[in-house]
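This section describes the prediction task in plain terms. A model, or a person checking by hand, is given the sequence of a single protein chain and must write out its three-dimensional structure as a string of tokens. No templates, partner chains or ligands are provided. The sample shown here is typical of the held-out split.
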Amino acid sequence: MGTVGLSFGSPTSGAGFNVSSTVAEIVGNLQNVETPWKNQLTSLESQDSVISSLGTLFSNLSNDMSSLTDFQGVLAQKEGSSSDTGVLELTAASSSATAGTHTVVVNNLAQTSSGYLDSVADASDALSGSMTIELGNGTTENIVIGAAPATPAANTIYTGSGKNTLANIASALNSANLGLTANVLADSSGSRLSIVSGASGKSGQLSVTSALTDSNNVTTANPVGTLNYNVGVDGKDASLTIDGVPLTSASNTASNLIPGVTFQLLAPSTLQSGNTQESIQVVIANDNAGVESTVNQFVNDYNSLIGAINTQEGHDSSGNPEPLFGSPTLSLLQQQLLGSLNRKNPGGSFDSLSSTTNATLSGSITLSLAGGIPLYYSGAAGTAAQASFGSLAPINNAADTLSGSITIAVGGAAAQTINIGDSSTPDTLAGLAQAINLAGIGVSAQVESNATSSWLSLTSNTSGKAGTLTVNSSVADTTPQTIQVPSSAGINSLAGLADAINSSLCGATAAVITANGNSTLTLTSEVEGSNGALTVTSALDSSTPAPLDYSETASYTDSTPDIGALGDVAASGDTLSGSLTIQVGSGTAETIVIGAAPSQPAANTIYTGSGADTLSDVMDAINSLSGVFATPNQDSTGITLTSAADGAAGALTVTSHIVDTGSPNITELNYNASSDIGSLTTLGISVNNDGSLTFDAGALDSLLNTDYASVNGFFQNANSWGQTFNNILTGAGTGSSTGILSLAKTSNSRIESTLNANISREQGLIAAEQSSLTLELNQANEMMQQLPTELEGMNQLYSAITGYNQNR
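The expected answer:
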């Protein structure tokens, strides 16, 4: 800290000094303590701003992925078209619709039942009588003009006292909510009661019998003035054929006649030459354009994010480091993003198993790749003393069937191609070796083997550069590979199966994924594209010991004991394993362990003993405890536990970890194919050197047209690339409390709180010091300003005493 000196000028002048500027100079020197804190706070606030911006970019990218991974998202959307929108118009296609083309012929439209009563000259005429309507659902309703009696008849509508006109009848019908509409229609010839069914098609057909009369409507032909009912339109279902199948629809809005599709029938198909009806082509298609747009947005948002991250690794236009320059946060984000982009997409997975049960596997799986397992060539150049040599990738069995070809050139000689499977080249390693040796290429081929695999080795017959081998292999092993469980090492778990697959030469990589208490074995093809499509046949069984659960069967009361049941086993002699903990009331919990006691038995623990592992042995161990009795149930497959004391003092708390290993639950472990797409590259997305992405929409469009299901599986199936990447985005941004950005922001916030507290405390001390200094310096200044007067007084006193006048 620097020092501040006070300048008083001439002390005897009486001018004093500037207190404010002096205090300000001292306070400014004190405030220098805060400067590094404030600089650090500014730096952290800049980091916070960048972190928030990155969080927004992560959120944008996560929204894109959510649209692709959502089962109801863009990949589920459908679009449709009709070849004649004057006859049939599509109105909706849900996610349950299946892409395809359908041929539709509309024979006739649906009709709605309707009719009317004879006209009356005056709509205000007083009518009498009744009318009966049979509805489409089979219900019959009577309409009676006049007031309802004390006991109204069933299924009868009364118009009410004095309500006897056509309008009164229409009002009564509409108020009754019968599923029809009544109106009074009038023209120059009179008024009529119109009735229209509320449902189209045959099911809405109305049958009306009228006994209504109009005394003002009497004629010679109609002496009582009866108002007869006239059928206007009969209810009729629409008739059509879809892909040759005759179908009907009660409505002209037809839903799910084509599953997931709704369309409107507007007219019958037109007649063509030969008196045949026009066939309408209805096309239901996947929304390729929507998927491509979403993937393009994903690429753009990803590039914005990775660009923002890359920017933080440099300096701004003024040469100052960016706020997150050198921060480990950037490295972590880059590692997660790039690592996830390059992650392989599983081709499928087996049914999940609970990770908390001791499941064992048995059986076998058989795997094959669509294009076979490629046998690539690797080799070494020759030297003056040693010939060039190399080999094809090994296979499990020398007798496996091969396909493809191999092209070999020695030195500068012309290359020769040998095709496997022709008349001179049998389709095995030995056959290929024989064909190469007979071809006179200048190379020796032989089959070599060890305990687990076989391979084809090639050695040039000429040393040095002249004998350098150039080999291009498109040979593939097309024989399905079978893996047995338990393996040769006796491993019978998911992890053991994964190890067996990974150590075999089957063209696939296995991994066990555990989440939410379940474990799943996934398989990923080692070959890109359609040639790497995995076909897996599972003959696996999962064997899981059946748990013996405990349940309370009778709750205690003040006068009755607590009772519960433990079981059941498949057979009373089944082998059991595990443990059981019992607590009576508030007493000490005791544990029963099936098996022999160790050299140092645990406290409050009873061991059944070596070989004592049946239900009877467990019952004996329970009965050795105090406060509880164990008895076999009726068929000896379970145990009934009864407390020795009534009421709360005898309340039983029982936790069972016993399982029946003698009769385990056996379930098939099926394989569920996911996608033939192994990585983003197949979708037309490539990663550039700076981590950004390039998108080829044409490649994705071609893939969507040929293998839409695999694109869907790539994003949406369990353990797929899309689901995993989406989870990583959610976990890395600010949306998760444990995300990389959230943790960085939380760390900054803690440091900022400490810095702000330090600054506030220091400012309080400085404020107190400023107040004290101001008071003290003001006092000093007043003294200096009074000094000339005091000196003058002293001079006068001196003169009076000495008689000396210094001014004379």
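For orientation: The longest strand covers residues 534-547.
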